[in-house]
């Protein structure tokens, strides 16, 4: 089958690889109809050391179940399913707590153990716990928005939950990538009254405003912090959604939180240490978040997508075929596209 | 009047200073009957650069109201009051949210602006918002426990609240100082089922066990982390109370939290950055806490002290007169005493 393989920073190829197939009796084999390139795929795209074996990429997908292992109970051939970026058994203590990204039998796609979904097909471990059947056809117009349940919409929602967004609160979203934009949707959906987006790309800012952002801060560093304080009676916001993961963005996130506020981190941290430990402490600002348990959020978010209440699929502003994946990476890296959808 | 003045690391003197007096109409003048030396006073005791003016120390006290300013409404001469380590107006947005340590008209004792309470008397700004009248006499046997409402009991409680301690949860307390020991009391009081104390001083550990600690981990670093995991099915604890503030203790705190767990920090952080940003992220461990709004907790904790449900005063294991304060600092710094009470 055809699959996307990364060999080094900037070196992504679509190649023939061995067909995906069932390995464990709890697996499902899924023919991928829709996949994505993720902002987090750009970290290895910028930094990966050369690997002879390469890494089969992709962790977001919708597809059709082609086959299931002997122990799979809830899925059958022909089901249209959405695949969270982490697989999980659905039965362990962490799955029961809604933290499927820490499932004791779980793991991630696009790793050494489990191949990626930017491919014609993908093996899905712990299929019963992982996959969610969608009540639509594969050519439904909602497909882009449903695809964001794999990662970015659930991740933006997680940032909002970890940032304690609630009715009447003020929120700021650090980062105007696909996750940040979904964070704006999530903050509005959870009732935030004022939503400040920190970003500087006109097309993304425009979309953020359509999603519900009330204010835009395009400055950086100290100036950005001052601007947010000016917009919030000098105090800062109740909730910050940190959707970048760099030292500077984490520092900004903590500094723009008001005393007693909360930072919800979903940008993968690129440093061992977190800055601004003392400001966070002296202001009693909580810092939470991490890999989003998007599986836990699908039941909550799916109805809003089906009813057209939210349209996170609008962040997928470029659609390509699988063989164009290398150019998709380039386009996202060059900020030509917010987020790329791969259609088969 | 006599007061405790620190001039440099290791140089604490009890001297004659100008009498404390009313300055603002919202002030109260309090004759100090009981004060403490705080673990946080030991940071300047170890590191303070020489100052000709010196710093008048102390932020924990019980005393008798001697005089009040024209705008004070709720206090009168002769009231026995407990003084939280931060003063606060009781009316601002943060006070209403229960975060009096961020009061917009608030501040701290023992600073350049407001003198300390290890003295014969102390000026208390924002007296109506700050002071709480105690329903006992100044010679009541509960005085040591009531005095801990100034800081350490409220601070231990804050660590437990920020660490999301709740019924049936597992908790770990990093640090066996007075605050850590009060953290054990707080964790038990909030229903924790297993309470692991990380510390290595036999007298303190013994007290921790009496307060409700179920397990003791005396190892450090990686070994301590392994031991806590062994005690908790390999997962770590739901709640960590970080009561030290050093890089190593913060690292340990994050590493012993189970996925989805919470670290409540009350140890004043000594570094600009926080370690283990990535482990906290990948395990969705929240890090909260800061200066405890002990004023907010007095109403909740006072009845338990009056009824003898909790006995935090037992951490005050040495009682001295004001003139012995320099030796009190030495004794705490040398770990001869857990916490020193100064009686007038």
Largest sheet of chain A: 7 strands, mixed
Query: What is the level 1 CATH name of the largest domain in chain A?
Result: Alpha Beta
CATH homologous superfamily grouping of the largest domain in chain A: Medium-chain alcohol dehydrogenases, catalytic domain
Number of strands of chain A: 18
* Overall CATH architecture of the largest domain in chain A: Alpha-Beta Complex
- Gap between N and C termini of chain A: 12 Å
Question: What would your notes on this structure say?
Answer:
The structure is a homodimer. Chain A has helices at about 40-45, 95, 125-130, 145, 150-160, 180-190, 200-210, 220-230, 245-255, 275-280, 295-305, 325-335; strands at about 1-10, 10-15, 30-35, 55, 60-70, 80-85, 85, 105-110, 120-125, 130-135, 170-175, 195-200, 215, 235-240, 255-265, 285-290, 315-320, 340-344. Chain A has twelve helices and 18 strands. The relative contact order of chain A is 0.16. By secondary structure, chain A is α/β, with parallel strands linked by helices. In chain A, strands 3, 5, 6, 9, 10, 17 and 18 form a seven-stranded mixed β-sheet that branches. A six-stranded parallel β-sheet of chain A has the order 13-12-11-14-15-16, sandwiched between helices. The first copy, chain A, has two domains: about 1-150 and about 295-344, Alpha-Beta Complex (Quinone Oxidoreductase, Chain A, domain 1), CATH 3.90.180; about 160-290, Rossmann fold (3-Layer(aba) Sandwich). The mean pLDDT of chain A is about 95. The two termini of chain A are about 10 Å apart. The interface between A and B is medium-sized, with 35 and 35 residues.
């Amino acid at each position: 089958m055809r699959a996307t393989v990364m060999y080094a920073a900037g070196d992504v190829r679509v190649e023939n690889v061995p067909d995906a197939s069932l390995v464990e009796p709890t697996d499902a084999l899924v023919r991928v109809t829709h996949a994505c390139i993720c902002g987090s795929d750009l970290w290895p795209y910028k930094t990966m050391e050369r690997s002879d074996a390469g890494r089969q990429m992709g962790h977001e997908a919708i597809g059709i179940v082609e086959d299931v292992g002997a122990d799979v109970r809830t899925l059958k051939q022909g089901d249209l399913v959405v695949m969270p970026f982490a697989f999980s058994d659905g039965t362990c203590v962490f799955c029961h707590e809604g933290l499927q990204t820490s499932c004791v039998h779980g793991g991630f796609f696009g790793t050494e153990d489990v191949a990626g979904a930017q491919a014609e097909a993908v093996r899905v471990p712990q299929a019963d716990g992982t996959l969610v059947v969608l009540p639509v056809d594969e050519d439904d117009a909602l497909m882009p928005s449903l695809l964001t349940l794999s990662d970015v919409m659930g991740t933006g929602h997680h940032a909002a939950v970890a940032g304690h967004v609630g009715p009447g609160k003020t929120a700021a979203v650090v980062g105007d990538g696909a996750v940040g934009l979904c964070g704006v949707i999530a903050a509005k959906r959870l009732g935030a009254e004022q939503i400040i987006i920190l970003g500087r790309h006109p097309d993304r800012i425009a979309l953020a405003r359509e999603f519900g952002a009330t204010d835009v801060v395009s400055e950086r560093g100290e100036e950005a912090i001052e601007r947010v304080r000016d917009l919030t009676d000098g105090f800062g916001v109740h909730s910050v959604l940190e959707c970048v993961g760099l030292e500077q963005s984490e520092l900004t996130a903590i500094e723009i939180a008001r005393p007693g506020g909360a930072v919800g981190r979903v940008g993968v941290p690129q440093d061992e240490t977190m800055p601004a430990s003392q400001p966070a402490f002296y202001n009693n600002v909580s810092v939470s978040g991490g890999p989003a348990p998007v599986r836990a959020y699908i039941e909550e978010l799916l109805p809003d997508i089906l009813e057209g209440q939210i349209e996170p699929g609008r962040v997928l502003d470029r659609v390509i075929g699988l063989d164009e994946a290398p150019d998709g990476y380039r386009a996202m890296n060059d900020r030509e596209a917010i987020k790329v959808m791969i259609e088969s």
